[in-house]
Amino acid sequence: MKTVDHQKFLSSLSNETRASLIQRTDRHGVAHLAVHWALVILFGLAIYFALPGWQLLLVPQGILIVFLFTLLHESIHQTPFKTRWLNAMAARVSGFLIFLPSTWFKYFHLAHHRFTQIPGKDPELAFEKPKTILGYIIHVSGFPTWIEHFKTLFENAMNNCKADFLPQKAEAQIVKESRLLLFAYVMILSGNIFWMSAELFWIWLLPILLGQPFLRFYLLAEHGLCPTVANMFENTRTTFTNRIVRFVAWNMPYHTEHHVYPIVPFHKLPELHKIIQNELIYKEASYTVFTSRYIAELKENNCHT
Fold it and tell me: Which residues contact 150 (CB under 8 A, 6 or more apart)?
């Protein structure tokens, strides 16, 4: 079967279909965000007041917070909400909670979309995917991610933001944002030390450490084991999963769909999937299946080296 080029696919869509797919609303985004944030607050309150079984909520709380990365990611595209300031607010709050400056990430991510899986141009490829079992364990632990997040924060704050994907006109804003973030983190930490309070550790910091591995599992499936070619149908994977994962990840498991047509809002991706499903090349039955296959590939490659 001949592989369809994503650009030809888009040009084949009627104007009516395009108009329907790219229609943004505040209603869908606000409703989704309200539930997501409400769960974070409710779990946080249960942990704060040490309700029976609160320890069991640490991982779900962490997953809910770290998966705000997917909202940050969507807000970069200005698609979760029709109103621009809502997208900006969602991006900044999400970036704050996961220690990832939203302005810097905007340019990083847009470059990833412009040059998906193109060596030397896609900034995501600078962070090499694991090639050994040990490397895989280290990767999914999330610690390399946290190191990179803080490295980015400090480098930007020191006016050392010279990556190829960063336009010169954005440097001042990136530096200012990183310095404000660091100032806020220092103030929060100082306040907790002064008041000898550990609540934020239990409500925020420990949960995101426990939740980060789940985000690593999820993100590996987006482009892992896909070829380094320009066609979005060939370099990106859609992973089928349950409603809970799709909700927490803002429908980003429909990832080929997102890369083929990035301006489609999250709530319209299931609709795009129905149109695009017969053209999908890389698709997986679940994240568990993908993880098993990824580990099997690592074992096989290691046996041959």
Answer: 99
| 9 three-class SS | helix
Degrees, nearest 5: CA angle 51-56-60: 110
Distances (CA, A) of 98 to 102, 108, 234: 10, 16, 30
Tell me the per-residue pLDDT of 115-167, one tens digit each, with 9 for 90 and over: 999 999 999 999 888 999 999 999 999 999 999 999 999 999 999 888 899 99
Token duo for residue 230? 């320009």
Question: Nearest Cα to 139, choosing from 305, 298, 302, 301?
Answer: 298
User: Which pLDDT tens digit goes with each residue over 194-229?
Assistant: 666 778 999 999 999 999 999 999 999 999 999 999
Distance CA 29, CA 146 (A): 28
Tokens of 259: 């890369």
Cβ pair 236, 220 in contact under 8 A: no
How many CB atoms lie under 10 A from the CB of residue 72?
Answer: 25
**Coil, strand or helix at 183:** helix
Q: How far apart are CA 8 and CA 219, in angstroms?
A: 27
| Residue 214 CA to its chain's centroid (Å) | 11
Residue type, 43: F
